[in-house]
Amino acid sequence: MTSSLRITCHALALSALGFTLTSCGKAPAAAPAEAQKPVAAITVKTAAAQEGPMPRYLRLTGEITAAQNAAVAADTTGKVIETPVERGTVVKTGDVLVQLDSRTAALNLVEAEANVVLAKSKLDLAESEVKRNEPLAQMKAVAATDFARIKADRDGAAASLSASEARRDMTKKALEDTTIRAPFNGTVAERFVTAGEYVMANSKVAQVIDLQHLRLLVNVSEPSVGLIHVGQTVEFTVSPFPGEVFTATVKFIGAAVRAELRDLQVEAEVTNTDGRLRPGLFAEARLTLPPQTAITLPSSAVRTDGANQKVWIVESGQLTERLVEVGETDKDRIEIRRGVKKGENAVLAPGPDAADGVPVKTVPQS
After folding, report:
1. Overall pTM surpassing 0.70 (yes/no)
2. Both 221 and 322 in a single domain?
3. How many angstroms from the chain centroid is the CA of residue 210?
């Protein structure tokens, strides 16, 4: 054997012993790893977190109600002969809602007016008797008891005339009541009767709602009662018009806190000239309170990811992702209650390339 023989890794099979023996020499050198490519820097616009006044709001929930909502009653008895309105009809004060049969009332009025004429003639006769007998009574030509009877007849005739006039006025009202009219400007929400039906004095014939003047009814919790005063402006939104803000003015404040709920009912007037809002709508409202100092960023710096809000802060030339707690918004700025300090630079409108550790080239906000 020569000593220069190089021994490499090989297996010696020892079949007699039933096992394989492996012996190794020097392992071959590993191939050098490829050098990692550097991440390219992205260019971003940034804005510094600022400290400034931020409005505060008391957030409430409420319901739109009608300032005037009347279930118009008949106030007399009779058969319906005409119903000139339908659901949705716009009416003005005095417009006819339902017409009842007025023939009996008209005849009663004729009779009552005739009774007034008769009573007036009797009074005139009694007055003339008093005037004719008064000088005779002064001269003792007529007994005092007879003259007293004459005056009593005159007073009785006057009372009969007053009673006849009252009955005439009542029958006149009964005739007028056969025409049931709208009590205010509004819209017919429902008509409860139709031609041929018989109504009583307390029968509802139509529902009229004033849609031009509405009210926002909200419940204010006991700790916030001191923040409410008449004349305050309330902003609110309703689901049929998403993103649109309506306004109301506090008009009525409840006299007492409700014991069972520990809240106070407040009503705010709503002008609804275009008629889009409807009574019964649920509203989310907010009441403006005095502003407070807060840390703010442009709204575009915050990205919403599910239930989380994130911003990317530039630190030492690279991005750092932060979860933040946001608060109120004012125009194009948003309050950052937690997660960002004053003076830190946040990326505006972060794109899909924004991630932790990515190097950046910054361009300040113009």
Report:
1. no
2. no
3. 15
